[in-house]
Amino acid sequence: MHAMKMRLAILGSGSGTNCQSIFQAIDDGRLNAEVVAVFSDNPEAYILERAKKRGVPTGLLNCQGFRNKFPEDAQKDLAKQLQALQVDFICLAGFMRLVKAPLLEAFPRRILNIHPALLPAFPGVEAWKQALEAGVKQTGCTVHYVDAGMDTGEIIMQAFVPVLAGDTSESLHARIQVQEHILYPAAILSAMARL
Ligand code: GAR
């Protein structure tokens, strides 16, 4: 266990089950950390509710109406807020926009992402669907450091998940998520130990 309590910020666009698994790992004593803020680009995202229920401050990212882009101004503004909060690690948990220079430069090797495939295979969106369509026998999930590419940063940890006969996109994603919820807290711990 890392001696110092790490300050985490979580960014997500959707349901936030990975965020919940980080809360759970903290409560179980598996992760010596505190989530100091949760941000989303989507005002409807359930991840914001999860944070509010726990009393974690939340923020909405102003993506200026862009569907996929994370505008530079919004990234600069977020970097400032996260620096003011003295955040040690930023955890992307189902965050569907690409992080670029303003954040990467402010938090070098401090931004982590979870991806629902065994990178470098199947980067990008709906990776479980890509795996199913490719007909692979196993897939999984990956936690990696974020760099300027799409799902290209150095890998921290991976977990394997079998693809079963009769799997649908939903059943496969659900099986991957079970592993994600174990993997992400373990990989955060591993990144802390590498500091
Ligand atoms: C997770 O499966 C995560 O790996 C994936 O989105 C889901 C979010 O679920 N992320 C990506 O596809 C990023 N490229 P959650 O909101 O329940 O944590």
How is this structure best described in words?
This protein is 37% helix and 22% strand. With 195 residues, the protein is of the alpha/beta class. The protein has one domain (6-193): Formyl transferase, N-terminal domain (Rossmann fold), CATH 3.40.50.170. It has a 7-stranded mixed β-sheet. Helix 1 (17-27) crosses helix 6 (169-193). Glycinamide ribonucleotide is lined by residues 12, 14-18, 93-94, 114-116, 127, 177, 180.
What attributes does this structure have?
6 helices, binds glycinamide ribonucleotide, 195 residues, seven-stranded mixed sheet, Rossmann fold
Give the helices and strands, then pairings.
Blueprint: E1 6-11, H1 17-27, E2 33-40, H2 46-54, E3 58-60, H3 72-84, E4 89-92, H4 101-106, E5 111-115, H5 127-134, E6 138-145, E7 155-162, H6 169-193
Helix pairs in contact: 1-6
The structure holds glycinamide ribonucleotide (GAR).
Task: Explain briefly what this protein structure is.
The chain is an alpha/beta fold. Helix content is about 35%, strand content about 20%. The protein has a seven-stranded mixed beta sheet.
